[in-house]
Automatic annotation (TrEMBL):
Cell compartment(s), UniProt: Mitochondrion outer membrane
Membrane topology designation: Single-pass membrane protein
Name of this protein: ARM10 protein
UniProt superkingdom: Eukaryota
Record-annotated Armadillo repeat-containing domain positions: 1-163
Alphabetical UniProt keywords: Membrane, Mitochondrion, Mitochondrion outer membrane, Transmembrane, Transmembrane helix
Gene Ontology terms: cellular component: mitochondrial outer membrane
InterPro entries, per the entry: ARM-like, ARM-rpt_dom, ARM-type_fold, Armcx_regulator
């Protein structure tokens, strides 16, 4: 895991980055690896890949963070990227794998109300995706919206959103 994280930092080759991110994502399926990746500063390295200009690299980084977000301590670190994740969802091509990867991460991050406030500005986008997206996109958006609606503090923001 340490070598994969170092490889991500050392290379600019998108194909190598994608493969390293896929391997880290698969490794994160095991809870012990989630802690190891966090302790090796892997979350910030992976989070840094969200600003990459190659959509496939961003998508693989989102998938890795999604798997890593099953851990409360990891969520505390991942939450700093939520605004960027929301921007990626908004700017990604409609129904793209990149957009869906971002929505899946937001779904996990919205299971508890701790980070709902970071998604307030994206509610109009979520409602637009609900209207314009394919069934896969709609289902993922609904999961985020259901999580947000479980928080009474979000009611006003959800009802006032301009669509």
């Amino acid at each position: 895991l340490q070598k994969l994280i170092h490889l991500l930092q050392a290379t600019d080759d998108p194909l190598i980055q994608e493969q390293a991110l896929i391997t880290l994502s698969n490794s994160a399926a095991f809870s012990v690896n989630q802690d190891i990746i966090r302790n090796l500063d892997g979350l910030s390295v992976i989070g840094g890949m969200l600003s990459d200009c190659v959509p496939k690299v961003k998508e693989k980084a989102l998938n890795a963070l999604n798997n890593l977000s099953m851990n409360i301590k990891n969520q505390e670190e991942i939450q700093v990227y939520m605004t960027q994740v929301c921007r990626n969802v908004e700017s990604a091509p409609l129904n793209s794998d990149l957009q869906l990867a971002g929505l899946r991460l937001l779904t996990n991050m919205s299971v508890t109300s701790d980070y709902h406030h970071k998604m307030i500005n994206s509610i109009p986008c979520f409602l637009r995706l609900l209207s314009e997206g394919t069934e896969r996109t709609q289902i993922q958006v609904l999961k985020v919206l259901v999580n947000l609606s479980a928080n009474p503090a979000m009611t006003r923001h959800l009802l006032r959103a301009q669509v």
